[in-house]
């Protein structure tokens, strides 16, 4: 996979899937700009990778704020001269049945999970079209395709990202920009761990139960997703466009009984 010298912006790049992506892309020789709302983790991650001689800069920013997104894209291009790839990965999870939904939770989910990717696309695409090349990978979820109990708005936000990605493909790929999405199943990250809070069963037992249900008999690791995204962003994946790649160990193949 050739990511060497590519300038890659990763949103939500300082925890879980995004952190693994940031580290793997940097190890492949990319110039990574990783952004999130985790100042301390972001600074520490960038320092750790820089200490190994790898290229990684942290930018503090909220993907649901247009000023933040616009200025991070502009600073990236100003400092590094180009923007080859974006991994629009930042996301949040909220758990509640629709009858208990507060509008604050609704807007939080939609602002981070849908408006964030929209803003990233809005500001990255003009740069990529000027260059005549670029790739944007979105992180959606298998939750876009299944009735994930108690997560109706989260599921809807992730399904919307798939629709967004497909429309961008028809609108902008003729001018050199490729779009893909990764759809993880159950991945062992801080987000997943936080979702176990409030259950009577300890997290380890819950994880073991989930792993037994997945055809490959294990949960996913952030690196499983990062390796797939690294390939999708590379030139070797140049004919993969408008596609959703599922990373779920076969969960979606299971019969409904
Ligand atoms: N873990 C899973 O099982 C799983 C499954 C399917 C999809 N996903 C999706 O993968 C993505 C990454 O999730 P994760 O499990 O690594 O979670 P995580 O909580 O470990 O990481 C989320 C990252 O997003 C950042 N973030 C949150 N709100 C932000 C904002 N407004 N602006 C900028 N950054 C923000 C956080 O700071 C963090 O770096 C999310 O989009 C999530 O919905 C996760």
Instruction: Provide the CATH topology of the largest domain.
Output: Rossmann fold
What is the alpha-carbon Rg in Å?
18 Å
Distance between the termini: 40 Å
| Strand-pairing-aware structural class | alpha/beta
Strand order of the largest sheet: 3-2-1-4-5-6-7
β content, as a range? 15-25%
- How many β strands by DSSP? 7
- The SSE string, one letter per element, is EHEHEHEHEHEHHHE
Q: Largest beta sheet, briefly?
A: 7 strands, parallel
CATH architecture of the largest domain: 3-Layer(aba) Sandwich
User: Residue-averaged pLDDT, rounded?
Assistant: 97
Low-confidence stretches: none
Morphology: globular
CATH homologous superfamily heading of the largest domain: NAD(P)-binding Rossmann-like Domain
Helix content: 40-55%
Task: Give an overview of the whole structure.
42% of the residues are buried. α4 packs parallel to α5 (152-172). 46% of the residues lie in helices and 16% in strands. The model has no long low-confidence stretch (mean pLDDT 97). It has 257 residues and is α/β, with parallel strands linked by helices. The chain has a 7-stranded parallel β-sheet with strand order 3-2-1-4-5-6-7, with helices on both faces. The chain has helices at residues 16-27, 39-51, 66-80, 103-131, 152-172, 190-195, 203-213, 222-233, and strands spanning 7-11, 31-36, 55-60, 85-88, 134-139, 177-184, 243-247. The longest helix has 29 residues, at 103-131. It folds into 2 domains: 7-185 and 221-246, 3-Layer(aba) Sandwich (Rossmann fold), CATH 3.40.50.720; 188-219, no CATH class. The radius of gyration is 18 Å and the shape is globular. The structure holds nicotinamide-adenine-dinucleotide. The site of nicotinamide-adenine-dinucleotide has 27 residues, from α1 and α6.
């Amino acid at each position: 996979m050739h990511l060497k010298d590519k300038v890659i912006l990763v949103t939500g790049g300082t925890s879980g899937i995004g952190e693994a992506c940031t580290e793997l892309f940097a190890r492949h020789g990319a110039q990574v700009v990783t952004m999130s709302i985790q100042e301390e983790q972001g600074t520490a991650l960038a320092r750790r990778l820089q200490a190994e001689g790898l290229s990684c800069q942290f930018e503090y920013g909220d993907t649901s704020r247009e000023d933040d997104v616009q200025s991070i894209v502009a600073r990236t291009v100003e400092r590094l001269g180009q923007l080859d790839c974006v991994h629009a990965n930042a996301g949040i999870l909220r758990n509640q049945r629709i009858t208990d939904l507060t509008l604050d939770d609704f807007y939080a989910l939609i602002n981070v999970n849908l408006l964030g990717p929209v803003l990233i696309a809005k500001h990255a695409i003009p740069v990529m079209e000027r260059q005549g090349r670029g790739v944007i990978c979105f992180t959606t979820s298998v939750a876009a395709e299944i009735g994930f109990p108690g997560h109706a708005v989260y599921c809807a936000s992730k399904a919307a990202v798939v629709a967004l990605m497909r429309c961008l493909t028809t609108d902008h790929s003729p001018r050199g920009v490729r779009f893909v999405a990764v759809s993880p199943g159950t991945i062992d990250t801080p987000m997943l761990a936080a979702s176990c809070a409030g259950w009577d069963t300890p997290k380890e037992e819950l994880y073991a139960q989930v792993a037994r249900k997945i055809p490959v008999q294990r949960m996913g690791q952030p690196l499983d997703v990062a390796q797939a995204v690294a390939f999708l962003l590379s030139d070797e994946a140049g004919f993969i466009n408008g596609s959703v790649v599922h990373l779920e160990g076969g969960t979606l193949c299971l019969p409904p009984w």
